[in-house]
Sequence to fold (326 residues):
Amino acid sequence: MGEVLSQSEIDNLLAALSTGELDVDQMQETGDKQVKDYDFKRPAKFSKEHLRTLEIIYEHYGRLLSTNLPVYLRKNIQVSVSSSETVTFSEFTNSLSNPVILGIVDFQPLNGDIIIELASNLGFAMIDRMLGGQGQPLDKARDFSEIEMIILEKLMVVCMQLMREPWKNVIDINPVMERIETNAQFAQVIAPSDMIAIVTMNVKIGDVEGHMNVCLPFFTLEDVMDKLNTKYWFSTMQKESTENYSESLEAMLKRVDVPVRAVLGKSLVSVNDFINLQPGDVIRLGTGVASEMDVYVGNIKKFTALPGSNGDKYAVRVMSVIREEE
Fold:
């Protein structure tokens, strides 16, 4: 039974209405309950907490891409998470325009696949950088050639393997690249009505900017949904950081690839001599036959060495280490 007003309360209410201090319309508005529409065709399987945890995972992933891809592309790369949302798989595929780059990844040991979608302008820019160009995208979209697809697959495998570490606090994954598709019609890995989470990352390679989408079906993540919350994430991360942070950091550094080059010698020639060089001409270098070569790690001179061979390959033997103080 509703609350009953006393006679004095009724008198005060009538007096407020007569003086204009209280508006009947405002009373009716405050009494209305806010109703939110619910679409039963699109059940909310991903909560805001789930999406926020996925953003944290892929913020870490973006930092790894920014650190590792420049080794292959010879260009600084900026990667950042721009948004996350839940849609049906059909809505995701219908928003794609061919040609598109879709990496179908078996997300072992979880059930099902995930999809890494890379904008085609980024794909062409990466291919151009890998082949020695300036990383310019095409003026007009076209299909990828067989050689370009091979290069793209190698880059997508690198991107896929970098997902291991960000997911480590949730589950140890062993992703496997099943195939690369350039047509969305051939990437039907789940039912069109199934719900997916999409994490969108903004990727910038020099002057070229585009997006990378990671499509994560609920079916694939269902077994670890209870771990996709920030409380579990940070508690796990804190335990690992206090145990073996320095050891894991050292192990990560040991896996980093660095370019090494041995310089046989240098010489100065005139432009005229350079233009007229022919097969069989001899260029005199500034180093003696018995002199040691300089070996560079990146752009830093780190060793001196003597030339030689190892089997059917050219090789150098390190003779001394150049310390920083030298």
Q: What stands out?
A: Residues 49 and 78 are 26 Å apart (CA to CA). The mean pLDDT is 83. The domain at 260-321 is CATH 2.30.330.10 (Surface presentation of antigens (SPOA)). The chain has nine helices and ten strands.
